[in-house]
């Protein structure tokens, strides 16, 4: 039972941290709850469907169907987070200034909500499908009754969701003019985390056979299955022993998104200056 509870807690925690950071990054924007709820709901439904079809998916494409689906999910989620980081990075000053006037910032904020709804849906889909599969595998070997099983799963869900809510609540205490900067950094790290997981998936599938040596190994100091390790994994993709390829994907993705956001921000600033001069 402990193993089942730990699996549910870990997967729920990763999804909850993801959703919590995204929710905080869109605080004060009209309709954000509707969009994020839609994304999360679609992810839950998709995870159930995906888990039920995992046998066929695994056998698809010469036995690497599951890896192929994971690569697609991760790639699309990275693209959606990158779009958000780049767009918000360029418009964060206006969004922070207009945070007191939610109606004025709604049009700006809603332009990025569709991308985040997709990213949330994909994150919940991936973590939810893994949860269903792991729990189903562990349940097949246990003799515990359904009530004990249901209680264990519920406890894991509640604990994972609680930690995610605490992250969200903590970000809510950040002043409006700093909130967009803080959450944009966190979303950037989430994108890097997904890129690291993408590298690991592609390496495990045999599609990338390079830089597979560990960059470091601090398993003795903070193992992946420790509570701090699981929290850091959900936020920045922490891995006690990442490969050099994972590190390269993480650094490359975050650097490219940061450079693109900086370039767009400079372009928007020049355009505003030109408009003010013309006026």
Please outline the helices and strands.
Elements: H1 2-25, H2 32-52, H3 54-63, H4 65-97, H5 102-139, H6 146-172, H7 176-204, H8 227-236, H9 244-278
Helix pairs in contact: 1-5, 1-6, 1-7, 1-8, 2-5, 3-4, 4-5, 4-7, 4-9, 7-8, 7-9
Short key terms for the protein model shown above:
mainly alpha, 279 residues, 81% helix
In short:
With 279 residues, the chain is an all-alpha fold.
Can you tell me about this structure?
- There is one protein chain.
- This protein has 279 residues and is mainly α.
- The protein has one domain (2-278).
- The protein is 81% helix and 0% strand.
- The protein has nine helices and no strands.
- It has helices spanning 2-25, 32-52, 54-63, 65-97, 102-139, 146-172, 176-204, 227-236, 244-278.
Mean pLDDT: 78
Q: Which overall shape is indicated by the principal axes computed on the Cα atoms?
A: globular
User: What amount of the residues lies in strands?
Assistant: under 5%
Count of individual domains: 1
Please describe the biggest sheet, giving its number of strands, its sense, and whether it closes into a barrel: none
Radius of gyration, rounded?
20 Å
Count the DSSP helices: 9
Query: What's the helix-strand series?
Result: HHHHHHHHH
Helix content: over 70%
Number of strands: 0
Poorly predicted regions are: 98-107
